[in-house]
Amino acid sequence: MSSVRVHRVVDGPETGPVVVLSTSIGSDHRMWEPQVAPLVERGFRVVRYDTRGHGASPVPAGPYELADLGGDVLALLDDLGVRRAHFAGLSLGGMTGMWLGVHAAERLASLTLCCTSARLGPPGMWAERARLVRAEGPGAVAEAGVGRWLTAGYAHSHPDRVAFLRDMIAGQSAEGYASCCTAIERMDLLGDLPKITVPTVVIAGADDPSTPAEPHGRHIAEGIPGARLEVVASAAHLGSYEQPGEFTRLILERITEDE
What we know:
By secondary structure, this protein is of the alpha/beta class. The protein contains 11 helices and 7 strands. Strands 1-3-2-4-5-6-7 form a 7-stranded mixed sheet, sandwiched between helices. The longest helix is centred in the N-terminal third of the chain and has 15 residues. The chain starts with 7 loop residues before the first strand and ends with a helix. It comes from Amycolatopsis ultiminotia.
């Protein structure tokens, strides 16, 4: 495991409980913009960061392992002087959260795992996507990526947001994107789920073609002791962006449950 100093954006009171928001492959901290104001209004200190190889974070030579991405979060918490934080991650961010739940539970107050999977095959698909991105750049997968992120109805009604998200994917580092593909290709957390003792909610999008609730969300919720599964209607893979009200409500419900 290695760590890099990831780019971060911090909002909210310095003394508030910390919520770390972790992103999907192909995105950066801006994907969580809809959640910032509601969390800050409730007194939370919101830490968004760009996963290594994405946004303004460093792009070390790949491939990456999930342990590298988790190590970056631990270094981020250390850098900010945060002993324990609530953690919410979507897709690759959720995978990072599960790794932290297994290996660094003492640093977590709660876990919110959105639109994610503990094992997301087939491995060959991720190897091929990494090859394509290294050869042609992330723009080669941007259109298909947005097609998975948003339902067709939402995309039709919000062409400006489709363009914003398409440009977000296309603007990422080819090496960073491809190296994160390898982390997903090699990931298998199914057997480790019972080791996670952090209070956890799993949120799935009812129309998510990438990590549907059946089987992905259900496997996680059944594997983590005490976890529950929530399925949000009219949400594809980037459910936090398409249905921000309901995702934010569920995140707040989890992080305020033990107050």
